[in-house]
């Protein structure tokens, strides 16, 4: 990897946002191996790209999700591992909508003009969602439906989904969401297991990457989490990037996705 390039933009026009995002994803703006960070307002995702390996880019990977996919937390470790596995030059981009649940990520990404640049140009897609669905207490089956709807946007790509990690039972959230969590635990028991099972039924085991193969989550694996009980530490995020890089399926995944109408909370 060469040097790191950082760019910050909060007050740019819509045309510039679309162009820069398109360029970052497709590789038109960055010719050498680097990490490029693009920060927008809360209405726009964090887009970060990195390359690893020699020669021309022959494999493109997209990581799409919420805050766990933002700010390049998984880079450059993820493309480094894939490049070593494939002996290819790999370009990986992470698009993270911090604080958004799966329905909002679906709605925002589907209407984002930059999505047009991705269609047909991405070999592998990994979806990291479910944290905000849990702490906002979206119904597990609705969360799974929304994630499958997002996956369906990439009909020509190998799509995989990481199961939602167990996070804090008492995160620093508004009272309404915390109350929903308490009620859910009282009636439903272990909430995270419900999300994992619903997702497994909808996405299929061949597309599912189990988060618990990396960590038992919070609080059982507290050392990997920050004090909020929701996010991994910087060191753990780098390890998580390597973990996902090892689990990316390099061969085509057979079977169509069973898509239903996206759902609210």
CATH architecture: 3-Layer(aba) Sandwich
Q: Compute the separation of the termini in Å.
A: 42 Å
The CATH homologous superfamily is termed SGNH hydrolase
Q: How is the quaternary structure best described?
A: single chain
Task: Tell me what you see in this structure.
By secondary structure, the chain is α/β, with parallel strands linked by helices. The chain has one domain (4-247): 3-Layer(aba) Sandwich (Rossmann fold). The chain has 8 helices and 8 strands; from the N terminus they run βαβββαβαβααβααβα. It has helices at residues 14-26, 77-86, 102-111, 131-135, 140-151, 175-188, 191-203, 234-247; strands spanning 4-8, 35-39, 46-52, 57-65, 89-96, 124-128, 158-162, 208-209. Strands 1-2-3-5-4-6-7-8 form an 8-stranded mixed beta sheet, with helices on both faces. The longest helix has 14 residues, at 175-188. The radius of gyration is 18 Å and the shape is globular. The protein starts with a strand and ends in an 18-residue tail after the last helix. The relative contact order is 0.14. Mean pLDDT is 78; it is low at 1-33 and 175-189.
């Amino acid at each position: 990897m060469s040097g790191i390039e950082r760019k910050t933009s909060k007050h740019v026009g819509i045309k510039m946002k679309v162009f820069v995002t398109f360029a970052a994803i497709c590789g038109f703006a960055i010719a050498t191996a680097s990490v490029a960070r693009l920060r927008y307002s809360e209405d726009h995702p964090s887009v970060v790209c990195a390359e690893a390996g020699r020669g021309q880019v022959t494999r493109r990977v997209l990581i799409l999700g919420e805050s766990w996919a933002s700010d390049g937390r998984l880079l450059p470790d993820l493309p480094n591992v894939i490049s070593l596995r494939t002996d290819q030059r790999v370009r990986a981009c992470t698009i993270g909508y911090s604080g958004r649940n799966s329905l909002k990520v679906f709605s925002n990404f589907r209407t984002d003009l930059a999505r047009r640049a991705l269609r047909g140009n991405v070999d592998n897609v990994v979806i990291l969602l479910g944290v905000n669905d849990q702490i906002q207490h979206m119904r597990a089956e609705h969360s799974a439906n929304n994630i499958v709807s997002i996956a369906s946007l990439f009909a020509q790509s190998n799509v995989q989904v990481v199961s939602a990690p167990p996070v804090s039972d008492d995160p620093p959230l508004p009272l309404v969401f915390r109350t929903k969590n308490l009620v859910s635990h009282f009636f439903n028991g272990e909430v995270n297991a419900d999300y994992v099972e619903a997702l497994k039924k909808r996405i299929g085991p061949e597309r599912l990457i189990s988060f618990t193969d990396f960590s038992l989550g919070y609080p059982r694996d507290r050392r990997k989490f920050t004090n909020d009980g929701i996010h991994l530490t910087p060191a753990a995020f780098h390890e998580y990037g390597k973990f996902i890089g090892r689990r990316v399926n390099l061969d085509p995944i057979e079977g169509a996705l069973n898509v239903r109408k996206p759902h609210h909370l």
